[in-house]
Write a structure and sequence with these properties.
Blueprint lengths: L8 H23 L4 H8 L4 H22 L12 H12 L3 H11 L6 H6 L4 H4 L2 H12 L3 H20 L24 H8 L16 H5 L9 H26 L10 H28 L9 E2 L17 H13 L3 H6 L10 H12 L3 E14 L2 E12 L2 E14 L14 E4 L1 H9 L4
Antiparallel strand pairs: 1-2, 2-3, 3-4, 4-5
Length: 441
């Protein structure tokens, strides 16, 4: 594995493409005064310098960040906040590293990490610990660090044990590296593990600023409950999630050997990479624009909705509209459409099989009436819709309140932020299906 993150395969490939593009741009610039075609081609390189500068910043910042902060328990990782990383690097270079640490600790113990917490749902090993993760998050937001930190340490150790199929995060010989990863580079998680796993044999009443696993869980480090320890524990958890995703990606798409390409191939790859990069930046900018929008939507009660309506009675791209769409599909016994509204963590879904599963749950439970009681947004992409339903089952009517926990995503299965258009609110079915099954008891 490379000594530097900036030499990771994806960075190196893009860097080589930039070099090829720079050579072509120089040639075209020379020919432009003599050729109209060359001048037109030069227009395609209009933003090339900006792209090159952005790439330089993006590729070098993880190594620089780790240089200043890894010994202090903070590492760069794929899902980290790039603007925060750059701000902290600037502060460190100005000899204000304490201020930078405060910013990191404040960020990783704030509501802002809700997006990162939600992203753990996509990793199976974290998903089974969803309730514990949510409990740790609620404790963190309430500054109950004394309870959040031990929870996080247990989640971290158990999750890595499941991922590695052998040993937990704090075991010395657990391989925490992955090809072409930032978090799982040798300067990342492995180094962080070594710092957090130091022996803590003596009981100490001095305040600590690292989530020392042995000292905290064995009751030796008594004064551990502060934002620095909690923030570093959360960062470790998110970095492990990035590591797990890198392992999965490498398994599904094994690393390819670097092959020498001709100039034409280099240009095509450069254009493709540049287009993807611009799309990625546009997506980040658009998401950032809506991040505060969801906070402005106060909990909504049933007076704001018709007692029972159709989708057209509700605003587009809202959780209540898609909840009503689901309820109407239930009334119409449209099990195929219900199956398509279920959120799946897997990219490959057999809708025929899912429709059959839905049928078994719903086919004898006839929805007579429903009412939206409330809508509460838990996170930018997560909302809970409380619904009162009247269900006819075995000639008896049951009135029940059910909760639809919904996730907002686009067609590619990527999370979106409330306020963005074009997404679909899908419900997570496990708890809800259990409630429906309980109607006949």
């Amino acid at each position: 594995m490379s000594d530097k993150i900036e030499d990771n395969s994806s960075f190196e490939e893009f860097r080589n493409n930039l070099k090829g593009g720079r050579s072509v741009k120089n040639i075209i610039s020379f020919l432009a005064p003599f050729s109209k075609n060359a001048k037109n081609m030069l227009d395609a390189f209009e933003n090339f310098d900006d792209l090159e500068n952005q790439f330089m910043e993006l590729s070098k910042s993880p190594d620089i960040f780790n240089h200043y902060f890894s010994e202090r328990g903070w590492i760069a990782h794929e899902s980290g906040n790039h603007d925060l990383i750059m701000e902290c690097i600037k502060l460190a270079e100005e000899d204000n590293i304490k201020i930078a640490e405060d910013k990191l600790a404040d960020y990783y113990t704030s509501e802002s990490i809700h997006w990162l917490v939600s992203s753990t749902y996509g990793t199976q090993e974290f998903r089974k610990r969803n309730e514990l993760i949510n409990a740790a998050f609620e404790d963190t937001k309430a500054n109950r660090f004394h309870s959040a930190i031990p929870l996080l340490l247990m989640i971290i150790d158990g999750t890595v044990n499941d991922i590695s199929k052998s040993k937990g995060f704090f075991a010395e010989n657990t391989d925490l590296t992955a090809w072409d990863s930032i978090a799982a580079h040798s300067s990342g998680l492995s180094k962080l593990r070594d710092i957090l796993n130091v022996t803590r044999k003596a009981t100490t009443t001095e305040e600590i600023f690292f989530p020392y696993r042995n000292g905290i869980l064995h009751g030796r480090d008594i004064f551990y409950a502060n934002k620095y320890v909690a923030g570093k524990a959360w960062l470790t958890l998110f970095a492990i999630n990035d590591w797990a995703k890198a392992l999965k990606k490498n398994k599904e798409n094994p690393p390819k050997e670097n092959k020498k390409s001709n100039l034409r191939d280099a240009l095509l790859e450069l254009k493709d990479t540049a287009d993807k990069y611009r799309q990625h930046r546009q997506k980040i900018e658009e998401t950032s624009k809506y991040m505060n929008h969801w906070k402005d939507r106060k909990p909504i009660v049933n007076q704001d909705f018709p007692v029972q309506g159709t989708e057209e009675d509700y605003e587009k791209f809202t959780p209540e509209r898609d909840a009503v769409h689901f309820l109407l599909n239930w009334q119409r016994s449209n099990y195929g459409q219900i199956a398509k509204q279920i959120h799946s963590f897997s990219k490959e879904v057999n809708f025929g099989k899912e429709a059959g599963r839905v049928r078994k749950v719903f086919e004898r439970k006839i929805l007579k009436n429903f009412e939206i009681l409330s809508v509460q947004h838990q996170a930018p992409a997560i909302a809970e819709v409380k619904v009162k339903v009247i269900v006819l089952f075995n000639e008896l009517e049951y009135t029940k309140e059910i909760l639809l926990r919904m996730l907002y995503q686009n067609d590619q299965g990527e999370n979106m932020v409330y306020g963005q258009v074009g997404g679909v609110w899908k419900y997570m079915d496990s708890f809800f299906f259990h409630e429906i099954d309980m109607i006949d008891y």
